[in-house]
Every structure is written in structure tokens, then in C-alpha cells.
Amino acid sequence: MAQKETNGSNGEHTTRPPPTPSPLRFSKFFQANMRILVTGGAGFIGSHLVDKLMENEKNEVIVADNFFTGSKDNLKKWIGHPRFELIRHDVTQPLLVEVDQIYHLACPASPIFYKHNPVKTIKTNVIGTLNMLGLAKRVGARILLTSTSEVYGDPLEHPQTEAYWGNVNPIGVRSCYDEGKRVAETLMFDYHRQHGIEIRIARIFNTYGPRMNIDDGRVVSNFIAQAVRGEPLTVQKPGTQTRSFCYVADMVDGLMKLMNGNNTGPINLGNPGEFTMLELAENVKEVSWILCNCKPLFLQSVVNFGGLLTCLLNFAVDQPRSDSDDDREHS
């Protein structure tokens, strides 16, 4: 029987009932673990998601990653664990596994990496999402897509709501990522309407935390890299441009709540508070000064800078620091 469902921006629509999951879900005598696939699970956000999922003893986690931007080091604590499995796999190729939930994160998210091979980036977004939706249809799994705030393009609305359609350029150098994610969202809803697949879509905004790639070219990692090396922090003029920054642990909590909730999405996930680039630079400078001078961290410092502190400690291992007061005074 067809059913109606409400999502975050499209109102009501009629869908087919979802595919039937594994018979183990209905067993009267055996309680099976939840089997969860995380594509791109060796990456920055993906590896933190795996850590959180593995805390639940009823979860079995499978990670599929081609290690283009991800790293086995991010998952080394779980390798060999009886509830964890790591597969070197490119999502542009079909994957046959039996799972109950799919977190589809696979795709390079930094311009440095997704512009390196734009054709492969859009294939990952389109063909990779098709393959994961085909898997979800076959096994009756719920699937969550991590989309991006980049689907709004160069927005004319601030802040952007999920109902905003965006101001986009379909032929720009970043379009392999932006348009690829837009197509991925389209595929998700078409599979949902036509085949009854249970979908969830998260539009992720700027995220930071441990395991960021220090060379990914984004502003938080650039500032932290300069601070660790004792260099002046480079802020592009005028410095009053704003961004929001969400700590990775909060992002993971949001993804899991979306997956296990009733809202199809798309849902914006990020920090609602915005900061200017000068404010961010000052925060990074203050935390790096505290570390370099071995000053005690008071409660307010921990509240304001805990995430940045963790990032700096993560990047500072084996990095030389400058003792020059002049370096600390630049931002």
C-alpha cells in the first residue's frame, strides 16, 4: 500500500512501501546485531562516525573506502575487532554486502582533492550513489547521504534554509562536487518515491576537529598549520567575511540522530553561529599561544576553544614551534 511521508522541504508525497529487510529482523528467537555500512569511513568525518557507532555493542560496522583521501590510521583502533570490517573498495563499482543501514559519505570534500580529478568526483557522486541506492533497494536498508551546503552555490539568501533552491553554476571548476551532490540528492528522492527506499539527506556545513587533513586547503586547517609552524596567520581581505564551524563530534551526533529519526530531509547540519575570519584567526592564535607558553587552561578557555585545542594538539606532534613574540602578534 502506498504511503504519505513529510520531508523537510518538499511537503507531502506518495511513496511505495520500503523493501523488506532481512528476515533476521523478524526472528523471534535470535536478536541480530545492526549491520551498518559506512562508505568513506576512513576519512575525517567517517572515521569519527565509526568510532561512535562502535561504542554500541549491538552494532557491526563495515567500512568501504578507496583511501584516496582517507587513511587506515584513522581506523587502526578497530582493525581486528570482531564487530568491524574494513574493505578497500571504490563506490563507483557495485558492492554486495548484507546490511541494515548505509551511511554514504564517500567523496572528497576539499576543493584541492575534488578538483584534482573532477570527472572521478562527479562519478563518485552519481554512480557511487546509484550503487549504494541499488544496494539499499536489494537488502531493504535505510540510507543516509551526506550532501553539502555547496548545493546552495553562491547563495543570495543568508542563512540558507532547506527550502532554498540555491544560486548555482553548473559549468564551473567546482561544479563536479556541487552539481554531483545535487544529482545525488535527486537520485535519493527518486529512489524513495519510485522504490520506497528509506532515505535521509544531511547537508553538511563547515566541520573541524581531529583527523582533519592539514593540507586540505580549508581555512581552519590553514590557520592551524600556520600556528603550529609559528607563522603569521594569513587572512584574506577584508576579514569580515563569516563562516560557521561545527565540531566533528557534534556533526556525528547530528548524522546519527537524522539516520534514526523520522525526518527524510534534506536537513542542514552545522553550527548556527557564524564567525568572521578575523575572529577565527584570533581564536587560533590565542589557543596556540596557550600551548606554546604552557599556560593553564581555565574553564572559559576550554568552553571557547576546546575543539581548536584538540586540533592543535593533533597537528602539533613533531612540528617545530617558533618562540618569536612577533609571530604570535600577527593574524
UniProtKB/TrEMBL annotation:
**According to its UniProt record, where is this protein located?**
Cytoplasm
Q: Does the keyword Membrane apply?
A: no
The domain of life for this entry's organism is: Eukaryota
Top EC class per UniProt? Answer: lyase
User: Which spans does this entry mark as compositional bias, Polar residues?
Assistant: 1-12
Task: Report the EC code(s) recorded for this entry.
Answer: 4.1.1.35
Residues forming the NAD-dependent epimerase/dehydratase domain are 36-268
Q: Which InterPro entries match?
A: Epimerase_deHydtase, NAD(P)-bd_dom_sf, UXS-like
Please give the Pfam families that the UniProt record associates with this protein.
Answer: Epimerase
Q: Tell me what reaction this enzyme catalyses.
A: UDP-alpha-D-glucuronate + H(+) = UDP-alpha-D-xylose + CO2
Q: What keywords would UniProt list here?
A: Cytoplasm, Decarboxylase, Lyase, NAD
An example Gene Ontology molecular-function term: UDP-glucuronate decarboxylase activity
Which coarse location class applies to the principal site listed for this UniProt protein? Answer: cytoplasm
Q: Which Gene3D superfamilies match?
A: NAD(P)-binding Rossmann-like Domain
Q: In which pathway does it act?
A: Nucleotide-sugar biosynthesis; UDP-alpha-D-xylose biosynthesis; UDP-alpha-D-xylose from UDP-alpha-D-glucuronate: step 1/1
| Cofactor field | NAD(+)
Region feature Disordered, mapped onto this chain: 1-23
GO CC annotations, alphabetized: cytoplasm
The UniProt entry's sequence similarity note says: Belongs to the NAD(P)-dependent epimerase/dehydratase family. UDP-glucuronic acid decarboxylase subfamily.
Function text: Catalyzes the NAD-dependent decarboxylation of UDP-glucuronic acid to UDP-xylose. Necessary for the biosynthesis of the core tetrasaccharide in glycosaminoglycan biosynthesis.
- Protein's name in the database: UDP-glucuronate decarboxylase
Please give the organism.
Urochloa decumbens
